[in-house]
Amino acid sequence: MKFTIKRNTFIQKLNDVQRAISSKTTIPILTGLKLDVTSDQIILTGSDADISIETVLDAKKEDNGLTIADPGKIVLPAHFFSDIVKRLPEESMTVEITDGFQTKISSGAAEFTINGLDANNYPHLPELDGNDQIQLSGNVFKQLISQTVIAVSSQESRPILTGVHFSIDGDQFMAVATDSHRLSQRKIKLPQANSGKYDVIIPGKSLVELSRMIGEENPDVIMRISENQVLFTLGDTAFYSRLLEGNYPDTSRLIPKESTTTLEFNAPALLAAIERASLLSHESRNNVVKLAIATEDNQIVISGNSPDVGNVEEQLDAKAVDGDDLEISFNPDYMKDALRSFGQTEILVSFTSALRPFTLVPTEDKENFIQLITPVRTF
Question: Which residues form the DNA polymerase III beta sliding clamp N-terminal domain (predicted)?
Fold first, then answer.
């Protein structure tokens, strides 16, 4: 195996594949990067058994500056190989297997030799059955991930809640996540109806890594689902993730159908006020912020208290106030995550009682996006 390539191009692809490589894996060969060099392309593969990423560098693309002298394949220690490549002195580099699995990496006057492993021992990537695929705009999919993944659980005691539940039926695509203290649900309409009906749970960690890979150069994401794997295709990069097994709880019954008190806010303005109130609440053991609503006077007061430090109180300016008076306490971190997901928009906050979950929806698109937060009992 021997090839020469532009270093910058190679580093971009290497960075993508490295997202799937962990130094903590129980399978030693998975700490390595697999290079499979054919007569006209290089295939880079990384995996940690949960996520696998494969990307292609094509010799036909002039920008790659790729010339292949000799095909072959090898697995190289990802950490060392990446550090070496990023510090080489020249614009291009040459990689060559010299003796057995010894690999020489050279650029200008610099030359490294590192030991590799037999690529035939590297686990095969999953094969997905069926041709059914879902195509989504990259920007829309990235937004959908950021709006829902905030609510996944970090507790491994209920593994099913560490994922986002995707359900697809015809042209309806719904993503929902909950950690039992909060919930985030987003619906979108697909550009074309899908013949299949899918109900899958994708680990939140996989979606976070996928989201980081979706950039300007990936206008569309193609999604294919099999029994225990999902494949996302972004241009010439394939991202595989395992699916979580089990039944996701029925979250539709958690969302209140009616409310007794509603407030309309500018999301960034409310976020700024919550951030101020949480400066002190973070110093107390329970990390709670209180909202007091007096609808007759249109008075809304937010307050935070820390016995050791002091307290904060601020009157909020709502666009509209309607319904019954209410005092409610909540975790400000959940509220901040929820408000950030709305961006620069107006939102409607709906309450039913001091101890029942309350909801946040955008005023423009109430049906398709909802954040729900469970209040904190303070007495």
Answer: 1-126
Q: Residue 127 falls within a domain, yes or no?
A: no
| Segments forming the whole domain that contains residue 355 | 256-373
- 378 lies in some domain: no
The two three-digit tokens of residue 83, written as one number: 């550090």
Alpha carbon distance, N-terminus to C-terminus of the chain: 70
Domain total for the chain?
A: 3
Secondary structure of residue 251 in the 3-state scheme? coil
Whether this model's pTM surpasses 0.85: yes
Contact 238, 245 (CB under 8 A): no
173 shares a domain with 113: no
Are 236 and 284 within one domain? no
* Beta-strand runs (E) in 243-339: 261-266, 289-294, 299-306, 310-316, 320-323, 326-330
Q: What is the pLDDT of residues 264-279, one digit of tens each?
A: 999 999 999 999 998 8
Q: pLDDT band at 130, cuts 50/70/90?
A: low
Compute the distance between CA of residue 15 and CA of residue 91 in angstroms, rounded to an integer.
17
